[in-house]
Amino acid sequence: MSVGTLNADIRISDVIAHPLTQELPQPTVTSWGKYTEVSIVLVEVRTDAGITGVGEALARFSPKAYCELIEGSLKPRLVGGNATDIMTHWHSMRRSLSGRSGGILFEAIAGVDIALWDILGKVAGLPIYRLLGGVGRQEVPVYAASVNWGNDEFMDEELDRYIEKGFPRIKVKVANPVKEACKRVERLRKRAGDGIELCVDANWAYTLEEAVELGRALTDNNYFWFEEPLRPEDESGYEELHRRCATPLAAGESNYTLDQAMRLVANRTLSFLQPDVARSGGITETRRMAEFAAAHDVQYAPHIGMSGIVCETASVHLAAAMPNLRAMECETDSSPFKTAITGAAPGADRQKNGMLPVPTGPGLGIEVDWDAVKKLTVK
Question: Which burial class, exposed, middle or buried, applies to 81 when counting CB atoms under 10 A from its CB (0-12, 13-18, 19+)?
């Protein structure tokens, strides 16, 4: 079947989930603790036309559980359906488990959804960002993630490394004790100078009063956002912090669906919404979240975290298409999830002066090396 035939009847023939785990080349240290290894799930959706799509699910732990859900519960709902009926499949998968939206189900759906968009792009002969409408971007602004939490010397070295790589925007991890975080915030600002944009990510480290204290230091040192200072469920806490903190607030990586983002976006408590396409139901739902944010003058800042090249690439397509983009996270680790499973170099190696080119091939615009995937597959 030729690519570019949108009216073709292309049926899903198989769905295969690949659980991958790798040791991080350098541990990631946040307020949660030290990550020495991380997992993802790659989702392969095959069709009777010989066109295959690939997606990624954010499955940092217990990846085999995701695979069982995908192949045991989602696959029967998908096989035999038209691969281009993406919204139909999304709602069908949503109904595979009862209860409120979230958790492992939506991360699993994300992997399938991204793969279906990859197929749609290959069928149409267009990159995904074109299918999303696009706003004419050929490259997207990115920021380096992250300066990990540690002693002064360690954090200084990480900051210097990102500046040397040409990143004009850099994220800093902060943790407790809060007074130490305030000192680090001031120290790193002085070291970076005024020409580098800095933001911080707290990974829910603080109480409200601690967040207010750190917020003052961030304002004094011109940081452009304060990311996830509080638990994501504490929406009233975020609203109170917004009233007491002049530094703009950012959050959203912990949200699975639009309804979980609505309150803090609609009342503009958040200045930046940060959904992760490998968690937030894939491209279909993440797009809805970004567009809702745009309607409320809230900027979109895709979260990547410790994900792989598929998540990163899907995020680039969304970033290229959404009108309210601020900047996309660009993880700088040399994870094999980013370096080994496709021929594409990770964003950190392709960015120049904080700008990352958008893929131009059909679908995601990348091809997976399935032999490399097998080497990372959990047995």
Answer: middle
Q: Is the pLDDT of residue 352 over 80?
A: yes
Mean pLDDT, the chain, integer:
95
The answer for residues whose C-beta is within 8 angstroms of residue 78's C-beta and 6 or more apart is 12, 15, 45, 89, 92, 93, 112
Tens digits of residue pLDDT in 197-221: 999 999 999 999 999 999 999 999 9
Distance, CA of 303 to chain centre: 3
Q: What is the mean pLDDT of residues 191-195?
A: 97
Report the C-alpha gap between 49 and 3 in whole angstroms: 10
Distance from C-alpha of 327 to C-alpha of 354, rounded to nearest angstrom = 9
Write the burial class of residue 16 (CB in 10 Å: 0-12 exposed, 13-18 middle, 19+ buried): middle
SS (H, E, C) the chain: CCCCCCCCCCEEEEEEEEEEEEEEEEEEEECCEEEEEEEEEEEEEEECCCCEEEEEECCCCCHHHHHHHHHHHHHHHHCCCECCCHHHHHHHHHCCCCCCCCHHHHHHHHHHHHHHHHHHHHHHCCEHHHHCCCCCCCEEEEEEEEECCCCHHHHHHHHHHHHHCCCCEEEEECCCCHHHHHHHHHHHHHHHCCCCEEEEECCCCCCHHHHHHHHHHHHHCCCCCEECCCCCCCHHHHHHHHHHCCCCEEECCCCCCHHHHHHHHHCCCCCEECCCCCCCCHHHHHHHHHHHHHHCCCEECCCCCCCCHHHHHHHHHHHHHCCCECCEEEECCCCHHHHCCECCCCHHHHCECCEEECCCCCECCCCECHHHHHHHECC
pLDDT tens-digit series, residues 27-76: 777 777 788 889 999 999 999 999 999 999 999 999 999 999 999 999 99
- Report d(CA 379, CA 236) in Å as an integer: 44
- pTM of whole model > 0.70? yes
> What pLDDT sits at residue 25?
73
What is the distance of C-alpha 156 from the center of its chain?
26
pLDDT the model gives residue 28: 76
